[in-house]
Amino acid sequence: MKRTELLEILKSASPGLSSKDLVPAFSNFWFDGETVTAYDDMVAVSAPCSFEIEGGLKGKLLMDWLAASRAKEVELVSHKEDVVQLKASRSRLKVPSMDSDLFHFEWPEEKGVTIDVSAGLVAAVKACSMSMGMDPSEAWRMGITASFNKSEVLLRSSD
After folding, report:
1. Over the stretch 99-126, which tens digit does the pLDDT of each residue have?
2. How far apart are CA 58 and CA 92, in angstroms?
3. What is the distance in angstroms between the CA of the first residue and the CA of the last residue of the chain?
4. What residues have CB less than 8 Å from 24, skipping those under 6 apart?
């Protein structure tokens, strides 16, 4: 797989990674051969990813290694019981892996209203995310508040 493509996919799923390693499963990317998922008990993000790994790999370690490499391709060298070995050019990474049986996240049943996402909404969410806090002891600072009327959505966040 192309290194830059894998790195972009992991970056898109990384908001679901836990920044703390209190629960190891929450700081891993979980691969199933078709998707990669990151879940930190509050946020879950999944992205299509056809990488032949099944199980969990340390998210920060994997992203840092991919970002530091200049190789064009990344390949799976071996996937043993608790270690995955990856190769990018002459660089190799041995990373501990967790069995996929340890990760039992199921997406909730979808309820609510489906809306078309426009460039304006994406820009508004990005603008709000710049001022969100990251301290879990102050959960009220970690999100975006949306107020709706019939034709508009007002988004707010604070740190």
Report:
1. 888 777 777 777 766 666 677 777 887 8
2. 15
3. 38
4. 98
